[in-house]
Amino acid sequence: MGKSGGFMEFRRREPGYRPKTERVRDFKAVERLPADAEIRDQSARCMECGTPFCHALGCPLKNVIPEINELVYEGRWREALELLLSTNNFPEFTGRVCPALCEASCVLGINDEPTTIRQVELAVIEKGFAEAYIRPQPPAVRFDRKVAVIGSGPAGLAVADCLNKAGYPVTVFDGDKKPGGILRYGIPDFKLEKWVVDRRIQLMKDEGVVFEMEASIGDDISAHYLLTRFAAICLAGGAREPRDLKIPGRDLKGIHFALEYLIQQNWKLAGETVDPAVEINAAGGKVAVIGGGDTGSDCIGTAWRQGAAHVTQFEILPQPPAGRAVHNPWPQWPNILRESSSHKEGGDRRWSVRTTAFLGDGSRVRKLRCIEVEWTPAADKKPPALKDKPGTEFEIEADLVLLAMGFIGPKKSKLSDDLKLHRDEKGNVTVDSRCMSNVPGVFAAGDVSRGASLVVRAIADGRKAAAGIMDYLSTRRAPAGKT
After folding, report:
1. How many C-alpha atoms does 92 have within 13 Å on its Cβ side?
2. Of 379, 405, 431, at which residue does a domain stop?
C-alpha cells in the first residue's frame, strides 16, 4: 500500500472546471489538470483492497488500479505508465471521457467518496508524454500477413495498435477526412481537444500503422478488394444509426439529430467547410434537446458556446435519486442524478416528459407539444409501463430541436452486405468468442457488434478482436524480416 490510512487523511478532491464565464466563450477543455502533488495525495487514498472491485468488476479494460496508485504515490511514474499501457492503449482518451465505471465499484465508495481513479490515469499518461517516456517504437519484426481495419474510432484504433505492436502490417480505412471517428467528430473539443487525438494518431503512424482516409467503403474499397489483399479484416465502424422521433411535425426545418449537430461544430473548429445552407447554429435561439444522456449534455454545452438564448433538455425517464436506491447497491453502477459541466452552465432539465408533436410557423419548427408521463412497475419482472398523465400537456418554444435519444445500431453498409455477414435483430454484426463473424477471417469490434456503448468498452473490444485475429493468423504467419 502506498500510504496506510491515506483514505482517512486525504479527502477526495477533483481538479474542477475552468470558470463558467470563461469556458463558455471557447471550445477549449473545461476540466483542469491537477498538479503532481494533488495526484499523489489522491493516489494515497487507494486502500489496495484484497479484492479490488475497481479492477475485477468496474473497469472493462481490467486496468491494474491499486498497483498503479501505489506506483504514483511512490513517484515511480514510468513504471506506473508501463503498467497502465499494458491494459489500456489510449489512457489519454479514457482519462478525459470515461464515466469512470471503476470508481463506481471502488470499495472506498461503500461509505465514503471513491478514489479519483480517472484523474490518476490521466496524470500518468500525460506525464508519459511530457517526460518523453512515450516514443515511437516500431516492431522489430514484421509478419507477411496484412490486416485491414475498417473504421478509425476507438475500437478500430485499438485493433490497429495491438496488431501493429505485434508485428502485423495494418491499414486503417475510413470515409472521414481525418482519423479518430467518434473521438474526433462526435465528442466536443471542450471534453476532448483534438490535439490529443492528433498526437496519438501521429504516434501510431510513426510506429507503422497506415491510414487511408476518405475511402469509399464498399465501393472503391470493396469486399473483393479487401478479401484478396488482406489476411484478415476487422469491421469497427461504430453504431451511428440514430433513434428517430416520428411524431407530427417531424419534417419541419430546424429538427436535427444530435450527432449531425456535433459533427458540424467539430468540422468548423478543425477549419473544414460547412455549407451555410445546411449549417446548424444555435446562436440567439431557443434550443430543445430531447434525450438526457451524454450526447444530449454535449449538445447543451455546444449550444451555449454558439450563443443560444436558452436551452431546455427533456428526458422521458424519471429523475434519478441523489443517492443509491435500495435496489441499486454497491458495487453496481449507480443510477443517480449526475450533473455534467454543460449542465452547470445553465438551462433547464425536465424529466418524465414525452414530446407528442412539433409545431411550426410555415416550414420551420417553433414549438414542442409535450405531456408529462409516469412509470408504473409491472409484474413478472417486466419493464415498467409508461403512461401519460392527463391534464399535464404543455407547449414550449424552440427554434432548434436536437434529437439525442441514442443509437439503434450500425448504419446500413454495402461492405457488410457484400460480405454476407450475419446480424442480430438490432442489426449488429454477430461474432464468436474471438470476435470473428460468420465469414472466416472477417472480425468485428466495438459498437458495430455490441451496440452503442462507451469509449472504454470500444477499446476493450478492439483489444479482444486483435487477440482473436492474432489467434486466427497464428498458424499462417511467416516472418518477413526486420523493418
Report:
1. 19
2. 405
398 and 379 in a single domain? The answer is yes
| CATH number of the domain bearing residue 195 | 3.50.50.60
Cα gap 58→115, rounded to integer Å: 13
| pTM, to two decimals | 0.95
CB atoms within 10 A of CB 169: 21
Number of domains composing the chain: 3
Which pLDDT tens digit goes with each residue over 48-93? 898 999 999 999 999 999 999 999 999 999 999 999 999 999 999 9
The domain in which residue 262 lies consists of 244-405
151 and 216 housed in the same domain: yes
Q: What is the pLDDT of residues 93-141, one digit of tens each?
A: 999 999 999 999 999 999 999 999 999 999 999 999 999 999 999 999 9
- Final residue of a structural domain among 347, 376, 405: 405
Q: Is-contact 298 191, C-beta < 8 A?
A: yes
CB 151 within 8 A of CB 122: no
> How would DSSP label each residue in 411-439?
PP-HHHHHHT--B-TTSPBP--TTSB-SS
Return left, alpha or beta for 249; rule: phi > 0 is left, psi -120 to 50 is alpha, else beta: left
Does 257 lie in the same domain as 387?
A: yes
Q: At what angle are helices 194-206 and 154-165 packed, to 10 degrees? A: 30
Tell me the C-alpha distance between 179 and 175, whole Å: 9
Per-residue model confidence as pLDDT tens digits over 192-217? 999 999 999 999 999 999 999 999 89
